[in-house]
Amino acid sequence: MFSFLVVLMSALQVVSCIDDSLLQCNSSCAVYDFKYFVDKLLQQERELSTYQSLTNCSAVALQAQIEAIEDLAFYPSLIYGGKKYLIAQLFFQTQSSRVAITRCGAFGGYLAEIDDTDEYAALKTFINNTPNVNMIMISGSDAATKGTWLFQRTGQPVPVIDWAPNEPNLVEEENCLYLWRDFDNLMMDDACEYIPFDTTFMCEIPI
């Protein structure tokens, strides 16, 4: 757990905390918005090089701040099969799949990987119960070989493929996998770069 907190702290703008007995951060730890933390990612990776950066914060206080940031950035989660699933509240149009992968990684996870039909059914229900989302990026890319879908994290084949009508359309630059709420959360391929307007992403986090 402690090593995970170190990695996460390097990815988020989480700085010095007040007395451990209060278990809360001072004004320099204020949460402004998720974009602020993402913008600070590389800066924090450069600055946080040793465990000494955590000496003024208790693990409990840091965990509380992490959870507060999670609440800001994501809709309420789904717990299923020993994993936590999170759908980002902020659209990320004009950005890329790398942004989604980085943001999931900041919370100790990765783009959601659908491993079987039971998990797929659970995630479809999860999306239906989440407001204001339509196109949700999940793990899967055929950038290496068109029509061969692999998880970005592991390089393993995507075992569950369930295309929406007229999908995939095999447009050359549409190499990322999405769940499409307008079509019963079936799958579609679309761009990995310059993301469409009404797009968000789903993270999967081991717990």
Automatic annotation (TrEMBL):
The keyword Signal applies. SUPFAM superfamilies: C-type lectin-like. Keywords: Signal. InterPro entries: C-type_lectin-like, C-type_lectin-like/link_sf, CTDL_fold. The keyword Calcium does not apply. PROSITE patterns: C_TYPE_LECTIN_2. Residues 80-193 form the C-type lectin domain. CDD domains: CLECT. It comes from the Eukaryota. Residues 1-17 form the signal peptide. This is C-type lectin domain-containing protein. The gene is 106073748.
